[in-house]
């Protein structure tokens, strides 16, 4: 056998060997992500949860800020029930199944409307907690309906569900703040004409006496979305576990208690930072 032929055969064997190893690795990865998300989390000893917005890592000197949504707190509670530490990653509802199949998350929690396309491609397990946009303003405002937000400064917060929608639908000038406390503070000081956040949070906030002068509201008109776990349709084991969790949270009204706690924190954050009087 010539040296050239032997060299060619050796190269061919190496090539086929590498291709076989790659194919085997791919099959193993597919098998790993085709099982139960809860089992994979247990094996990894960490639950990776996809949510709509991941808070920036806290660094020394930063002001503590309560986030716009409670989904982060909910997945942390889920981790406690599973006795697993939780890592969060940003995942949009429409990308939930793809993210889970790719091994980027074990479960996704997101706000989902009843007519959202994700219902056709995934198992959606709703929680007893709905959200929709609501605006609050000074009680002497001349803004009486959503259309009158055109050209007006409207404050929102990073990670909120409604960033971009007020400008698109009503021609509002959106001012995106770091967190709800910053958005609401801007309304109190006159830097914004209105603040738009989830109605669940704002309805709780305007019950507080110190918010009486800022309790004018534009009520909910958009369809509500419900927080829901999103899973591949094939993962029946995880679906059963999360259905039990959703039922328990509904019975105990756990999401409502989280909102009430968050509102108290947000109101206190505004109080600490307001170093100028309310706009008169």
Q: Any key phrases for this structure?
A:
single chain, 280 residues, D-Maltodextrin-Binding Protein, domain 2, 5-stranded mixed beta sheet, 10 helices, globular, disordered N terminus
Indicate the topology:
Elements: H1 3-33, H2 37-44, E1 47-51, H3 71-82, E2 86-90, H4 96-101, E3 107-112, H5 118-121, E4 123-131, E5 133-137, E6 153-157, H6 165-170, E7 173-177, H7 180-188, E8 194-198, H8 199-205, E9 216-218, E10 225-231, H9 236-252, H10 254-273
Question: How would you summarize this macromolecular structure in one to three sentences?
Answer:
InterPro entries: Solute-binding_3/MltF_N. By secondary structure, this protein is α/β, with parallel strands linked by helices.
- The helix/strand order is HHEHEHEHEEEHEHEHEEHH
CATH architecture label of the largest domain: 3-Layer(aba) Sandwich
Shape: globular
Mean pLDDT: 87
By CATH, the superfamily of the largest domain comes out as Periplasmic binding protein-like II
Please report the total strand number as a whole number: 10
Percent in strands: 15-25%
* Low-pLDDT ranges: 3-12, 15-33
Q: Summarize the amount of helix as a percent range.
A: 40-55%
- Give the domain tally: 3
The largest sheet, given as strand count, sense and whether it forms a barrel, is: 5 strands, mixed
Widest sheet: strand ordering? 2-1-3-10-4
CATH class of the largest domain: Alpha Beta
CATH topology of the largest domain: D-Maltodextrin-Binding Protein, domain 2
Number of helices: 10
What class would the helix/strand composition place it in? Answer: alpha/beta
Radius of gyration: 24 Å
**N-to-C CA distance:** 97 Å
Signal peptide: 1-34
Domain Solute-binding protein family 3/N-terminal: 46-266
Keywords: Signal
InterPro entries: Solute-binding_3/MltF_N
């Amino acid at each position: 056998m010539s040296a050239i032929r032997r060299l060619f055969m050796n190269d061919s064997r190496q090539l086929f060997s590498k291709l076989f190893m790659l194919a085997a690795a791919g099959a193993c990865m597919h098998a790993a992500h085709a099982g139960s998300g809860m089992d994979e989390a247990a094996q990894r000893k960490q639950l990776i949860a996809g949510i709509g917005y991941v808070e920036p890592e806290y660094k020394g000197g930063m002001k503590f800020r309560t986030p716009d949504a409670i989904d982060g707190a909910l997945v942390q509670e889920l981790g406690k029930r599973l006795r697993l530490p939780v890592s969060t990653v940003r995942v949009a509802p429409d990308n939930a199944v793809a993210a889970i199949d790719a091994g980027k998350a074990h479960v996704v929690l997101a706000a989902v409307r009843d007519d959202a396309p994700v219902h056709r491609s995934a198992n959606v397990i709703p929680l007893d907690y709905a959200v929709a946009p609501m605006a609050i303003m000074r009680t002497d405002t001349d803004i009486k309906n959503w259309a009158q937000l055109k050209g007006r400064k409207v404050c929102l917060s990073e990670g909120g569900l409604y960033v971009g929608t007020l400008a698109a639908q009503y021609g509002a000038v959106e001012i995106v703040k770091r967190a709800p406390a910053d958005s609401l503070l801007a309304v109190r000081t006159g830097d914004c004409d209105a603040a738009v956040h989830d109605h669940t949070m704002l309805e709780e906030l305007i019950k507080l006496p110190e918010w009486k002068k800022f309790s004018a509201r534009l009520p909910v008109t958009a369809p509500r979305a419900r927080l829901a776990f999103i899973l591949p349709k094939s993962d029946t084991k995880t679906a059963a576990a999360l259905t039990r969790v959703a039922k328990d949270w509904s019975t105990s009204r756990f999401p409502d208690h989280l909102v009430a706690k968050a509102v108290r924190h947000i109101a206190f954050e505004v109080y600490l930072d307001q170093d100028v009087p309310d706009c008169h």
